[in-house]
Specification:
Length: 76
């Protein structure tokens, strides 16, 4: 299994809606609204790095209101 953390920067004040939409994506285990340089952090657990790319670069970035993402794959 691959565990990844996706940092999400939003350009909207609809953090609750974005959290719910991201959480509904298959493979996303949790999504949290946070304070700091990003607005949300999502944790995904999937079978392959390609599945991480699909979640971060296609599904999350395709949500209206998402400005940018940064993805970190856990090494342990």
């Amino acid at each position: 299994m691959v565990t990844a953390f996706v940092m999400v920067k939003a350009n909207t004040g609809e953090a609750d809606r974005l959290r719910d939409e991201i959480l509904s994506i298959e493979g996303v285990e949790s999504t949290h609204i946070v304070a700091g340089d990003v607005d949300l952090i999502a944790k995904a657990r999937v079978e392959t790095p390609a599945a991480v790319k699909e979640i971060a670069a296609t599904q999350i970035q395709g949500i209206e209101g998402v400005e940018d993402t940064q993805t970190y794959i856990a090494m342990d």
